[in-house]
Amino acid sequence: MSERDPALVDVTCPACGHRLDGSTCATAGPDTKPSAGTSVSVCVYCAAPCRFVDALGPFAGKRLRLVLLTPEEMEELPDDIRLVLALARAAIKQRKSLH
Ligand SMILES: [Zn+2]
After folding, report:
1. From the CA of 62, how far away is ligand 1's center (Å)?
2. CA atoms within 13 A on the CB side of 71
3. What is the DSSP string of 30-81?
4. Are 45 and 52 in contact (CB under 8 A)?
5. 80 neighbors 88 (Cβ within 8 angstroms)
6. What is the Å distance from ligand 1's center to 49 Cα?
7. pTM of the predicted structure, to 2 decimals
8. How confident is the model over 15-38, as pLDDT tens digits?
9. Distance, CA 17 to ligand 1 centroid (Å)?
10. CA of residue 58 to ligand 1 center, whole Å
11. Going by C-beta distance under 8 Å and a sequence separation of 6 or more, which residues neighbour residue 42?
């Protein structure tokens, strides 16, 4: 990702509260943008599994926000996406343990 995505302004992790202003797609091209309802993510700070949904209030339809993935939602993900999430979470947790 090279440019700020305007849909990701003021997105915060629902688990740790860190502000996330960018995303990198692990399964498609680098220019792929997240979509409300279909894109899942992992917080780069705490490794929380999340999904993108529409922002609330005046920014609905223009910006995204993150909500935590429930265990049931994790189970419903396709195997390849669940694997990518697990690998990303493991890498983030390992990096955190090195500091
Ligand atoms: Zn977080």
Report:
1. 22
2. 0
3. TTPPP-TTT-EEE-TTT--EEEEEEPPGGGTTT-EEEEEPPHHHHHHS-HHH
4. no
5. no
6. 9
7. 0.84
8. 999 998 777 777 776 678 888 988
9. 6
10. 24
11. 48, 49, 50, 85, 88, 89, 92
Letter for the amino acid at 92? Answer: I
Residues 36-84: pLDDT tens digits? Answer: 988 999 999 999 999 999 999 999 999 999 999 999 999 999 999 999 9
Residue whose structure tokens are 């995505």: 5
C-alpha separations of 28 from 33, 53, 54, 98, 99 in Å: 10, 19, 21, 29, 30
H/E stretch holding 93 = helix 79-98
Backbone angle region of 47, left / alpha / beta, with phi > 0 → left and psi within -120 to 50 → alpha: left
**Alpha-carbon gap, residue 37 to 61, rounded angstroms:** 12
